[in-house]
Amino acid sequence: MAKVTGAMLMARSLKQQGVEFMFGIVGFPVQPIAAAAQEVGIQFIGMRNEQTASYAAQAVGYMTGRPGACLTVSGPGVIHGFAGLANAKENFWPMILIGGASPIYQNGMGAFQEERQTELAAPYCKYAHDVELVERIPFYVEQAVRFSIYGRPGPVYLDMPDDIIQGEVEESDVQEMATIPDPPRTQTMPEYIDAALELLESAERPLVIVGKGMAYSHAEDEVRAFIERTQIPFLASPMGKGVMDDGHPLSVGAARSLALKEADVIFLMGARLNWIMHFGQKPRFSENVKIIQLDIAAEAMHQNVAAAVAMVGDGKAVMGQCNAALDGRQWFYPKDTPWRAALAKKAAANAATIQPQIDDDSSPFNYYRALKDIREWAGDNAIIIGEGANTMDIGRTQLPNAKPRHRLDAGSYGTMGIGMGFVVAAAVVHPDKPTISVSGDSAIGFSGMEMETVCRLGLPVKIVVLNNGGIGKGVEVYPTDGSAAPHVLSVDARYDKMMEAFGGVGFYATSPDELSRAVNEAMDSGKPTLVNTVIDETAGTESGRLGNFNPQSVVSKK
Ligand code: ADP
Ligand code: MG
To answer: Which pLDDT value is given to residue 476?
Structure first.
């Protein structure tokens, strides 16, 4: 009889369940899993830190709907991977962390890198389990993948001890499993659809908020049909951007604060009223705002604001229901209303405030001027990644998205260091599209060593560092007398030379002329490229929105 190893069964099962990419770092005891993965046709991408590998795995999950795998060694490797689990849990993105573990027969003996891994992973996961029998590996992989993509998506963990990886069983003893289909789409009750449409018809100042749940559920066609049919103004959450084209005439993203504050009925689609949305509460929202909520998770309903209509279901399926129900109605939100006029006026005023900064050709740059060239460079088809405080906040407003699932950033968990992991994931999932990452100089530091990864793999990604020499603001010259404030970094740091050192292309830009030359050449280089752009060290706010965020300014303590 033919025998099969645990490592091969793990690889085979992952491939069978639609896992196409594995990111990680090999070593004891997982090396055989990586080798088997390559043998069965899973692309193995060797990274330089398990954190970045775990970020890459979840970005694959978000972009493709099937979890990416992250493979780590035991103990410290698994602990590093938890960073990604936590980020995926907060974003509801599927990924599978496979942690190597010391052999079962050494449990409790103080084995090499012995750790209570499954127990520690559990709070960050939808599902975490030890694999204790080689023949049951397909069972655990099916269950893990199913948990990660069914219902509200999220991360899962499987613990693979050395003796399970190396163990062998007869093929005939293996517990084979069926391939788990994509998640079944669920509709909501028709009366909720009617209630939602009636509430929207009664609104004076309606608004749609499109979140990344709609991107994840591939609801873009249904959302566009609904918004164009009802003519309701919309705005997008940071990663909901692109489900609707940011340039769509009904977008009121440029009047975001006013739209949120004055709307009387909000259709919240696949987004949460969490800190990013100011909890849906005053003073950033109207106290009497009525919320129509659409989410796949029942437990998401009514968070922070009691919803007037709570629609639990799949984003694409429920928007399809809404569109079908609209066929029987005449109503759409009228063309000339005071609300539309107010939003248009505010958007124009905001644009006029920013324009001088976009047009300001002096050096060193301000953020808006630097992003202008990147915007022209990026075009419509690029996957745009943003991290950093000011860099990400201002980048979100200045770098439009026209397509869904084309923006990746620090997300609901506000994680710095995701950038390079997302860069690698975007480049391997979408080799046909430009991958462009815009990173603050602090943010790039968290996982800058992955520049070696993109150079080794020859991924033609474009990284722009907006370098102001600090976390938030910096100073012109780093004081060497010990007086530097904690947030100050070296503005002279040559991140571009780091990329060159690994075989990529580096540019250093201190003026608009240099930047336009650099971005043009970077786009044509066909190689991993980093443009180190020196920004005015006094530009931006102290440490951007993430750093400045003060919960008490939004919700008063009782
Ligand atoms: P954003 O940051 O864009 O506001 P959040 O992560 O806060 O997005 O919220 C996304 C929401 O989308 C989550 O509450 C999640 O449950 C929901 N979601 C995930 N998948 C689907 C789906 N297929 N259909 C509808 N909602 C979904
Ligand atoms: Mg900075």
So the answer is: 81
pLDDT, tens digit (0-9, with 9 covering 90-100), for 448-506:
999 999 999 999 999 999 999 988 878 888 888 888 889 999 889 999 999 999 999 99
Residue 344: count other Cβ atoms within 10 Å of its Cβ.
14
Please give the C-alpha separations between residue 546 and each of 120, 139, 463, 550, in angstroms, as whole numbers.
27, 41, 21, 9
Phi, psi (rounded to 5 degrees) for 19: -85, 115
- Quick one: which atom of ligand 1 is closest to the CA of 274? 7
d(CA 18, CA 380): 29
pLDDT for residue 557 is more than 50: no
Distance 467 CA to ligand 2 centre (A): 6
**Look-up: residue for tokens 């722009």?**
464
93 close to ligand 1 (CB < 6 Angstrom): no
Assess contact for 301 and 292: CB atoms under 8 A. Answer: no
DSSP track, 68-101: EEEEE-TTHHHHHHHHHHHHHHHHT--EEEEEEE
First to last CA, the chain: 70
195-207, pLDDT tens digit by residue? 999 999 999 999 9
Give the whole-angstrom CA distance, residue 178 versus residue 33. 21
Model pTM score: 0.96
